[in-house]
Structures are given as structure tokens and as C-alpha cells.
Request: fold
Amino acid sequence: MHWIRILEKPNPIGAFVVGVLAGIAAPLWKGLLDFIFGGRLKEKQARLDYELKKKQSRLEYENEARKRLYSEFEPLIFELLETAAEALARIRSLAWAARDGDLPQWLSMSRNQYYCASTMYYLLAPVAVYKLMRRRLTVIDMNMDQNIARRYQIAKQLATSFSHPFDFARRLDYEPHNEDWKTLRIEDQAKYWQQGVSSGRVDAAAESLIVRDHEPDGALRIRSIGDFESEFVKPGSVVAKAFAIVWDVFNGFHPATRPVLWRMLVTQAHIYGSIIQFHKESGADRNLTVTPMAKEEDRESLYWKKSPSADEQKAMSDAFTVAETYLAENIATLWAGAAYKPGHDTANSASKSSAAKA
Reply:
């Protein structure tokens, strides 16, 4: 109380005491504030520095990964485009050959060996490109570039479509697994001839198309068509064995007698045409999608009869309907046509099975 009374009185001693106390308290208070808030600020700054370095490291990693992705994947993008163009041309060629009366004889090894071998090569080469993609791509790679991811998804669907004959047999009587199929298919190919290939057989055929520039660690590539033909016709070769079942599906093929297989090829033609169209477009914001064949000239290129009957015209039109339904159902995120509606295009009971057993 004595000190308080001194401080309350306006005298020099009180002022002196207040000054001394203030001089002592000020640095103590400042030190306390620095201790409390300065530590928090330093801690916050340290966290910010850590997050910044982490982000910079991530960006550097992604930039390097993107460079690697493009350096490795660009050649495969070109391969996919080239093989897509060749496959589409061959599917159209099959339609033209049928219109001109050259099928099924052109797909007979005794009549046209080159056409048979080249058909196998052109239709399976895109699947081989897909297998090379699968070897090199990672989930991180596909997250970096959506159009690369879309190319991969489309190539995968191409490979998968070969083993989905029952999905293409909508509203058709198709029984390739009948116990008497070997005999029955001679008289009724549409019903009893196997018109699809199991995923394992497709995989083996595609693998036989991939070779190394040199052993044991040369770069992997698609073998040339000349090399393929010489191996395809060589009895007992790796290629001949790998393609035996695939060739049986196409041996003596005509769109009218094997409608399930033709629908599959028309579906693949939609995909190939979309890949080609995407590369013709410009603009960084474009996206790879699969579209219906809206132009009549594109559809006509796949018509296999010049002056069709009503039933033949319906069969040709049905191929496009089934193709669009299949694509809408199986690659909905990439399909630019009408959405798939369950039950809208009801398949026969056998279509519930989605893979060939051959």
C-alpha cells in the first residue's frame, strides 16, 4: 500500500519508479510475445516451406514422367493410327469384295494366300499395339493425359471385342457350341460357325506379331507384313499355331453367311474411324470419342450387297444398330452417340455369355 500511495502522488520519485518498472517490463513483455507468437510464426513458415518444396518436387517428378511418357508413347500413338487406318481399309475391302462377288473365295488359302494372310495381319495388328501400350503404361501415366488414357481404353475394347460374339448375336439364332458343330456348320454357318475368338487366343495371336529388333534386349515392335506372311503360311511356325483358331473364324467368310462376325467388324470400324478422325482435328481441348457413322457414304462403304433384298438390307442396317448398342454399353464414357438403354435392343438368351469358348 505504501508503494501505491507513492505512485499515486505526482512527484519525481513516483515518476522515476514507473519509468524503471516500465523499462524492466517492456523487454520482458516483448520477449514473452516473441516466444508465444514468434514460435508459431516460425512453425507456420516451416510448414509452408515444406509444402512448397513438396509441391515443387511433385511438379518436377510429373514433368519428368510426362517427358518419359511422351517419348515412349508417341511412337505407339503413331502405330495405333497407322494400324487403325489399315484395319478400317481391310474391313471396307471385305465389304467391297463381297459386293463384287469375290467372297468367300478370296478368303481361301488355296485361292488368295496373300489376301488371307494380310487380312489376319491388318485386323490383329491394332491388338498387338494395345499389348505394347499395356506393357508401358501405368495408372499415373493415364492420369497425366486423358487422351492417352482414352486411346488405351479404345485399344483395349478393340482387343476385347473379338471375344464377345454373343454380344453381337442379338436377335440371331447362334449356337456355335452345339456338340455337332463341325458337321452342322457346313450347312448353316450363321448358326453353328464359331464367329469369335477367346481372349487367350487373341492374346496369343497378338503376341506372335510382336518381335524384338535384336535379342535379348532389343526394342519391341510389330513385325512387318512380309515377315508375317512368310511365317503365317509356314506349317508349325509360332505364328501359324497362334493364328490357327483365328484363321478358322475367317476362313471362307462372307458377311451374309457369318453375320455375327460382320457385326463385330462393323463395330471395330466405328472405333477405327473415330481414331482417324481425332487425328485429323486440331485444338488442345479436343477429346477422343467414338461416334456413330452419321455419313451415308461411310455406311455405304460397309454395305456388302449392291442391290439387296429387303432381308439383306435389314441385315446390313442391323449391323450398325448392334454396333452402336455394343459401344454404348461397353465404352459409355467414350461413346458420343445415344446412351445405352437396357432392354432397348434385347439380345437372344445366348447373348448373356460374353466370351467365345474356342
Summary: The mean pLDDT is 84. Residues 14 and 35 are 31 Å apart (CA to CA). The chain is about 65% helix and 0% strand.
